[in-house]
Amino acid sequence: MKINYKVKDKIGLLALLLFLAGTVQAQNKDEIQIRKIYDTALEDGKAYDWLNYLSNQIGGRLSGSIQAEQAVNYTKSQLDSLGLDRVWLQPVMVPKWVRGTPEFAYFETTPGVTTNVPITALGGSVPTPQKGVKAKIIEVQGLEELESLGREKIQGKIVFYNRPMDAKLINTFSAYSGAVDQRGRGAVAASKYGALGVIVRSMNLRLDDFPHTGGMGYGDLPEAERIPAAAISTNAADLLSTAVKLNPEILFYFKQNCKQFPDVQSFNVIGEIKGSTYPDEILVVGGHLDSWDLGDGSHDDGAGCVQSMEVLRILKKTGYQPKRTIRAVLFMNEENGLRGGKKYAEVALANKENHIFALESDSGGFTPRGFSFDTTDASFEQVKSWAHLFEPYLTNLFTKGGSGADIGPLKNETMVLAGLRPDSQRYFDYHHAENDTFEHVNKRELELGAAAMTSLIYLFDAYGTDVSKGK
Q1: CB-facing half-sphere around the CA of 227: CA atoms within 13 A
Q2: pTM of this structure
């Protein structure tokens, strides 16, 4: 048989050109949609207004508090106003820990000569005795040094954990991870050696006078053996460390009145747009609605909540009809229990829901730099192919590893988890402290984060994941 190679070559070239034209057309479609998303977020955003109300009209939203209840009602009402396909509250039992009257502390260099220092009780801590605790200080750089000292040097004293976050690490979340064990497990470890209480250097790279609270736990330690735990500001930690070195006999006094109550009912707040083509494939975007009680929780994590709500609003505003079901979930109780994230995953499993992607914003409302992805190598290659679409917005730093605490319980072998990664250099200046307030959130940075999140949700909706495409 005689083959006309010229005809065959022309057909092959035509097929290649058609393929390239389709690819270019798809890229242009994505570029246009993402541009539309950013324009809507920056010119007609609602996230900053929502955050203003959460922060300034409601305030700190500690799990089990009246403010947390008000936040549930407010965010549900705002989601109701967006014309979504469904909005509902998901019940979840949460811990109720109350700080009580303000904490008080000082160190005494000689009898009657005292220096007051700012402290704050760690979340979940037991109170001090009614008259407070007063004892000698033993300074350690971490749990390992504590164990090396043993009961003889620790019993009857207050342990002062003073290992700072590592300033050499550019990723401040890595620096936080390297120091936070002192806060989380320091009281349990010190109690086993007979300590009367613990004071922990605040998880903060900056030197200031704001003590930073945060969650801690006692595990299965009997109640009678639990000792009070508080954070001390970084300036005061340095001052106390110097004083102890000059005079190891100084005494430290602190008093706190916190109390743990029985669990109470709260809610995750959920809104969704139903998918038009694959309604059983679910994409989640979320943040945690609770916060600590010292500031108003604007960065941690009011920002992530309003950005997640904004994802749904922007998609509706731009007229985009998702192929897959997209849910915004405002999780309750990330800070001191992760009950909301666990409950959501438990219900999803019981209902046999097919979650293929989840994105969380819980790193503050700062300028977005990109995303981290907890997924397979193959899925990450798909994700990296989209990075160029984020280049015009300077949000194209895509890294493998890490997502978010609340979406972590959803993890399985197939779904993709992701976290928004804003610039992290200022985050721990405010994290869990009194100065985590609305005026420290920049409107444009918040809006850019919401736009980046919406763009990533759009891409996963438009193209699915490796697993969803292979069905």
Answers
A1: 23
A2: 0.92
**Tens digits of residue pLDDT in 52-83:** 999 999 999 999 999 999 999 999 999 999 99
Instruction: Tell me how far the alpha carbon of residue 78 is from its chain's centroid.
Output: 22
Tokens of 459: 């891409």
Across 25-43, b (16+ Cβ under 10 Å) vs e yields eeeeebeebbebbbebbee
User: Sign of dihedral through CA atoms 143, 147, 150, 151?
Assistant: positive
Active site residue 69: no
The label of the residue with tokens 């829901």 reads 353
Per-residue model confidence as pLDDT tens digits over 261-303: 999 999 999 999 999 999 999 999 999 999 999 999 999 999 9
**Catalytic residue selected from 103, 281, 334, 335:** 334
